[in-house]
Amino acid sequence: MAEAAGVSRQTVSNVLNAPDRVRAETRERVTKVIADLGYHPNHMARSLRASSPRMIGCRIQPLHAETVAAIQDRFLHALAEAGQECGHHLLLFAAADVAAEAEQCTALWRAGAVSGVVLYDITPDDPRPGRLTAAGVPFTAFGRTAVGTESYSWADVDNTAGTASAVDHLVAAGHRRIGFLGWPEGSSAGDARAHGWLTAVDRHGLLAASHRLDVRGDDTTTTGSRLMRELLDRPGPPTAVVAATDTFAVGALHAVRDQGLRPGRDVAVVGFDDSPAAAAMGLSSVRQPIKEVGRLVMAEVLRLTGRPPGADGEPPQEPLHRLLAPELVVRASSAPSQGSPPAGSDASPLCL
């Protein structure tokens, strides 16, 4: 039948099982050949095909006791919702490190337990995309490496723009010494957020006043408190800080309070992730479009698992490369030092 229609076997399969994946003219030609040959589908074969795995694998990471963001939990929930709409579900697994994760992904795929996998928490020199590509495993990543991003599918949040918008907000509120709380270099998201803070203070001509106010440490509330105390004890302390995570920011709020200062009035604090804790504590924060990232990542990995490159005679589609803009949510922790918060801000009372 495929030979009579001048197409591949996969194209015939797509016409029968997923006609929306085939161009209209090709679909009409194959349908006509099917009718001319009097073909009737083998329902037993179809039932076997339907029993193929409708699972997407993803490594679940342990949650630190001193974090408030739980971004992966929200991402997994978004993935699960998006997959459920398409009849797919998540297979969560644990792995000791990224090397073990790549091996586990490959083993699950080769065993037929999953149709594809999703990668999370990508580092600049992350080996996982290269290893899965070499193994032929369909995957999509939340985040991207420093190089080689053109060769695989990914969706990411513009972390640089997120912290830059926080700096712009603080400058507009009258702040000139703006500090940064972040984690050590080596994380794609963390490095991008630090870069956003640096470029923004430089663009506003505040680098000389702020360049010594960049402090780093592990992403815990305890570290956030310690780093904030260090900044407040320095000569010329900051009047505002941008934190790379809400976890750092919550720790910073406690340090501000412990020194008898008023968050949002004496010292402004802006976090990143817009966690539930941020809303509860009146913390200004950069909101990631996690639901949209989950939808895009799931749609792309399903596309990769359901349509082999060039299967219907068309050129393979380009990988997904999508950078999404975050949104700054203004609350009481960074209210302008004079007057009311800007119109449209979410200035809920600050509770510590």
Automatic annotation (TrEMBL):
<dbReference type="Pfam" id="PF00356">
    <property type="entry name" value="LacI"/>
</dbReference>
<keyword id="KW-0238">DNA-binding</keyword>
<feature type="region of interest" description="Disordered">
    <location>
        <begin position="306"/>
        <end position="352"/>
    </location>
</feature>
<dbReference type="GO" id="GO:0003700">
    <property type="term" value="F:DNA-binding transcription factor activity"/>
</dbReference>
<dbReference type="InterPro" id="IPR046335">
    <property type="entry name" value="LacI/GalR-like_sensor"/>
</dbReference>
<protein>
    <submittedName>
        <fullName>LacI family transcriptional regulator</fullName>
    </submittedName>
</protein>
<keyword id="KW-0805">Transcription regulation</keyword>
<dbReference type="InterPro" id="IPR000843">
    <property type="entry name" value="HTH_LacI"/>
</dbReference>
<feature type="compositionally biased region" description="Low complexity">
    <location>
        <begin position="332"/>
        <end position="352"/>
    </location>
</feature>
<feature type="domain" description="HTH lacI-type">
    <location>
        <begin position="1"/>
        <end position="50"/>
    </location>
</feature>
<dbReference type="GO" id="GO:0000976">
    <property type="term" value="F:transcription cis-regulatory region binding"/>
</dbReference>
<keyword id="KW-0804">Transcription</keyword>
<dbReference type="InterPro" id="IPR010982">
    <property type="entry name" value="Lambda_DNA-bd_dom_sf"/>
</dbReference>
<dbReference type="InterPro" id="IPR028082">
    <property type="entry name" value="Peripla_BP_I"/>
</dbReference>
<dbReference type="Pfam" id="PF13377">
    <property type="entry name" value="Peripla_BP_3"/>
</dbReference>
